[in-house]
C-alpha cells in the first residue's frame, strides 16, 4: 500500500521530541514507510495547515511500536537517530552565546528589547536562539533596535522543553539570560498604531462636515463624519481623491473606514504578527502611516445607532 511513498523524496524533515535543536533531516534510505509518512507525502511534502508535521515515533526507537505500517509517525533507523542525537547533545541549543549551532551568525553587538506592559528589558542578541519569529523581528528593526512582545517568548524553551528548536514559531530567549544594565535606550512607548488603539476614547467623538458644527447624530446626510486632521500631510480618501494639505477636517464614509483598515492589514504581511507591533517606519509605499492612522482613529465617531468596533477588533 505504501511501497512507493518514499520514491519521490531524498530525505524527510522530522521533529524529534528528544532533540532540542529543531527538526532533523533523515535520508529516505533510513526511513520505513508508515501511514503517517504516506499521508504527508500525498501533498508533495507541502501539506495543508491541518496536517501535522512529521514526528519521530519514540516507541519504534525503543523497538516497541505495535502499529507497524499503520503508525501515524515516522519509523527511522535507531542507529542513525542515535548518531544525530549524540551530535546535538554535544552543544547547547538555548542561545547563540552558549553555542547553538544555528545561531552563530547573531551579532553580539546588537540588542533586542522585550516589552511587557509598557516596560522594557534589553538583552544582547546572543541571548537568543534563531527562530523564524526572531528573524522577522530583526528584519523589522528600526534604527537597529529590534523589539518583541514578551507574549511571543516561548515558555517551553524557558523551561528547556521546546521540541521544535529553530523551527519554533515563537522566540527563544535563553532561560539564564539577564537584562543588560547599561544597554542602549529603547523607547518604551508602544508603536503609533498601538497607541491609537490603547489610548483613544472614540465613543464621545462626533462631528459633522468641517465648519458646520453639526454632529454626525443630527446630520441629515447619509455619511458618517469623522474629524480628521489633514494638516500634517496630504491624505487620500476612499475615492482616491487627494485632499488639500491644511484642511482641518474631512468626511469619511464607513466604506472608507474599511478601505483604510484593509490597507493597514496589508502592511502587516505576517499573518501571525501582533497587530500592535506595526511600526511607523515608512517601509511600505502606502500613503497612510501608523501615525496618520493614529490621527484617523482619534477622530472616529459614533454615528446614529451604529457604533465603531471596539479595539483591537478593527484589524482582527
UniProtKB/TrEMBL annotation:
Residue span, C3H1-type domain: 52-78, 149-175
Mapped zinc finger ranges (C3H1-type): 52-78, 149-175
Superkingdom of origin organism: Eukaryota
One GO MF term attached to the UniProt entry: zinc ion binding
Keywords: Metal-binding, Zinc, Zinc-finger
Residues making up the signal peptide according to the UniProt record: none
PANTHER family documented for this protein: C3H1-TYPE DOMAIN-CONTAINING PROTEIN, C3H1-TYPE DOMAIN-CONTAINING PROTEIN-RELATED
Name this protein carries in UniProt: C3H1-type domain-containing protein
Organism of derivation: Neobodo designis
Lineage: Eukaryota, Discoba, Euglenozoa, Kinetoplastea, Metakinetoplastina
Amino acid at each position: 500500500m505504501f511501497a512507493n511513498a518514499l520514491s519521490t523524496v531524498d530525505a524527510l524533515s522530522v521533529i524529534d521530541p528528544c532533540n532540542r535543536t529543531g527538526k532533523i533531516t533523515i535520508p529516505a534510505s533510513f526511513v520505513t514507510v508508515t501511514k503517517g509518512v504516506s499521508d504527508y507525502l500525498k501533498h508533495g511534502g507541502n501539506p495543508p495547515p491541518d496536517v501535522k508535521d512529521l514526528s519521530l515515533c519514540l516507541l519504534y526507537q525503543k523497538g516497541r511500536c505495535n502499529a507497524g505500517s499503520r503508525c501515524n509517525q515516522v519509523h527511522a533507523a535507531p542507529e542513525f537517530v542515535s548518531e544525530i542525537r549524540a551530535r546535538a547533545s554535544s552543544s547547547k541549543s538555548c542561545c547563540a552565546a552558549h553555542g547553538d549551532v544555528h545561531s552563530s551568525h547573531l551579532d553580539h553587538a546588537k540588542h533586542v528589547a522585550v516589552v511587557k506592559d509598557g516596560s522594557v528589558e534589553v538583552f544582547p542578541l546572543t541571548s537568543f536562539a534563531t527562530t523564524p519569529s526572531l528573524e522577522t523581528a530583526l528584519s523589522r528593526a528600526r534604527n537597529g533596535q529590534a523589539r518583541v512582545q514578551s507574549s511571543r517568548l516561548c515558555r517551553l524553551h524557558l523551561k528547556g522543553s521546546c521540541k521544535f528548536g529553530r523551527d519554533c514559531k515563537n522566540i527563544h530567549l535563553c532561560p539564564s539570560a539577564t537584562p543588560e544594565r547599561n544597554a542602549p535606550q529603547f523607547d518604551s512607548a508602544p508603536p503609533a498604531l498601538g497607541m491609537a488603539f490603547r489610548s483613544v476614547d472614540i465613543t464621545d467623538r462626533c462631528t459633522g462636515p468641517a465648519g458646520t458644527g453639526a454632529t454626525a447624530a443630527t446630520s441629515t446626510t447619509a455619511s458618517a463624519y469623522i474629524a480628521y486632521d489633514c494638516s500634517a500631510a496630504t491624505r487620500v480618501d476612499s475615492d482616491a481623491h487627494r485632499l488639500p494639505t491644511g484642511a482641518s477636517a474631512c468626511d469619511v464614509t464607513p466604506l472608507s473606514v474599511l478601505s483604510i483598515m484593509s490597507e493597514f492589514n496589508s502592511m502587516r504581511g505576517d499573518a501571525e504578527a501582533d497587530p500592535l507591533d506595526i511600526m511607523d517606519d515608512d517601509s511600505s509605499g502606502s500613503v497612510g502611516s501608523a501615525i496618520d492612522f493614529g490621527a484617523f482613529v482619534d477622530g472616529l465617531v459614533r454615528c446614529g445607532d451604529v457604533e465603531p468596533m471596539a479595539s483591537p477588533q478593527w484589524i482582527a
